[in-house]
Design a protein that fits this description.
Elements (H helix, E strand, L loop, with lengths): L6 H7 L1 H9 L2 H6 L2 E6 L2 E7 L13 H16 L4 E12 L8 E11 L3 E10 L2 E16 L6
């Protein structure tokens, strides 16, 4: 019989490693997203909006807003060192992000079990809530941090 893994302890033991793995995500680096915090089922990141992130109406492209929300979702659901992937997301766009603004996204775990995790994400533009996301993650059986055997 397998012994249960204490994921909270695993998070604290490997927090720096987990942070580095998530910080080095290639697409986030390409966009310029900066991971600020990672906690037990939580994450915070920021992105300075550049001119190439603007849509035809002069506001932040919805794909950019989605990208930072998806990124903190990924960081939060992988924060225990267990490999997790997104299954579904629902995004609500409430306001337009503004040119030359700073986007800040925060993910919070609502609940998790050994196979699934549920998350709520807020995205702000210069302090104004512009989007929310509800997200569901599938938690695979493997870990990307060492497990003591």
């Amino acid at each position: 019989m397998k012994s249960a893994v204490n994921e909270v302890e695993l998070h604290h033991q490997y927090k720096e490693h987990i942070f580095k793995v998530m910080e080095n995500e290639p697409y986030a680096q390409f966009l310029g997203i900066k991971l600020l915090e990672i906690g037990e089922g939580t994450a915070v990141a920021e992105l300075n909006v550049t001119d190439n992130m603007i849509n035809s109406h002069g506001t932040v492209h919805g794909a950019v807003t989605f990208a930072i929300a998806d990124y903190v979702f990924a960081a939060a659901c992988n924060s225990y060192g267990k490999t997790a992937v997104g299954l579904s997301t629902t995004v609500n766009y409430m306001a337009a992000g503004q040119k030359s603004s700073r986007l800040r996204a925060t993910a919070v775990e609502e609940k998790k079990n050994h196979k699934m995790g549920w998350y709520k994400i807020n995205v702000e533009s210069n302090g104004e809530l512009i989007a929310t996301m509800e997200a569901l993650a599938y938690r695979k059986s493997d870990y990307f941090v060492p497990l003591d055997k």
